[in-house]
Specification:
The protein is of the alpha+beta class. Helices cover 50% and strands 21% of the residues. It contains eight helices and eight strands. Strand 4 and strand 5 form a beta hairpin. The longest helix has 27 residues. The radius of gyration is 18 Å and the shape is globular. The termini are far apart.
Length: 194
């Protein structure tokens, strides 16, 4: 199945669009293949695209002064990813996006996204809804990271990313949760024994 056909199915479950509107969205999209471990966005580059993951798995992260990775989010199939701050401000990104698996994405430049939003109000409303959901999820993630136990963080992670444990190394999950690998192993054992 072609990438846009998969995206079309995703969209049709989320928003009501005509065939002509879907054709316009398709005409502004570009397909991109990303090899495993390939950088999609490097720190210092400007995040200039809205990116929809059709196949594969990407991650957004930063590296601190000591060389430690801090994973902010994963983007499996049917998720969107970009550095929204860089995208909206045009400033260089502080984040890195790379592929954890061989991936295929659809991308729209900022200009093309704005054009499509202007032409299709329902698609604009859909995009704004995604932004609001992302903002709420971001705030919940911050709250959970400072107030939740390791067990609660683990449960939230499994709810948000039900199939990620089979796809990424344990140290990356620990990085996302802000816990040590040993703590994550202990928590996982606890839940496995239940």
């Amino acid at each position: 199945m072609q990438l846009f056909e998969i995206f079309r199915k995703y969209l049709q479950e989320k928003v009501e669009l005509t065939d002509a509107q879907l054709d316009l969205i398709r005409s502004t999209s570009k397909e991109r293949k990303i090899a495993k471990r390939e950088f999609y966005l490097r720190e210092g580059e400007i995040s200039g695209h809205n990116t929809f993951v059709v196949k594969g798995l990407l991650r957004l992260y930063r590296i601190d002064e000591d060389g430690n990775e801090h994973i902010m989010r994963f983007a499996p199939e049917n998720w969107w990813i970009s550095d929204r701050e860089s995208y909206n401000t045009g400033e260089p990104s502080k984040f890195i996006i790379d592929a954890l698996e061989k991936s295929e994405v659809l991308i729209w430049t900022k200009e093309d996204s704005e054009f499509v939003y202007g032409e299709i109000p329902a698609f604009r409303a859909f995009g704004e809804g995604l932004f609001v959901e992302s903002f709420i999820a971001y705030h919940n993630r911050i709250y959970n990271s400072i107030s939740s136990t390791a067990e609660e963080k683990y449960k939230n992670f499994v709810k948000t990313y039900p199939d990620i444990f089979n796809r990424v190394p344990l140290h990356m999950v620990a990085s996302y949760l802000g816990v040590t690998r040993e703590t994550l192993s202990r928590v996982r054992r606890h839940f496995t024994l239940k």
